[in-house]
Amino acid sequence: MYIIIAGCGRIGSNLAKDLLDDGHDLVIVDRDKQRLDLLGTGLNATRILGIEYDLDILREAGIENADVFLALTQNDSINITACQVAKDIFNVNTVVAKVADVSKEHIYKSLNIQYINPIKLGIEALKSRI
């Protein structure tokens, strides 16, 4: 599959490595050059420096051909905007975001954006082991 990841933090960078190991084609977009540089030279993914919801940046990333778009930044406003652009303008089939602030989860729900909430997932995993 052709996958675009917006956000190269802990989740984005680790997921990128796993997806590449699984044989997917991958593009990573981040506005922070240092985050992209931390991926190292061994990662066979296209890296694009730019604003994660910018139309020209997303076109450069090949969003017209993307099967999946993942918004994994630390900023809910960026994740929400990027998902809406991917879903509503470029008609990407699978669009998923990471909730950064649990108090904003209701916004994702109201906009019908698929999401994961790492904090809730972590809490559930810990509670299941108690």
UniProtKB/TrEMBL annotation:
InterPro entries: K_uptake_TrkA (IPR006036), NAD(P)-bd_dom_sf (IPR036291), RCK_N (IPR003148), Trk_Ktr_HKT_K-transport (IPR050721)
GO molecular function: potassium ion transmembrane transporter activity
Keywords: Ion transport, Potassium, Potassium transport, Transport
Record's GO cellular component terms: plasma membrane
Pfam families in the record: TrkA_N
Keyword Manganese found: no
Source taxon at top rank: Bacteria
Residues of the RCK N-terminal domain: 1-120
PANTHER family named in the record: POTASSIUM CHANNEL PROTEIN 2-RELATED-RELATED (PTHR43833), TRK SYSTEM POTASSIUM UPTAKE PROTEIN TRKA (PTHR43833:SF8)
Name recorded for this polypeptide: TrkA-N domain-containing protein
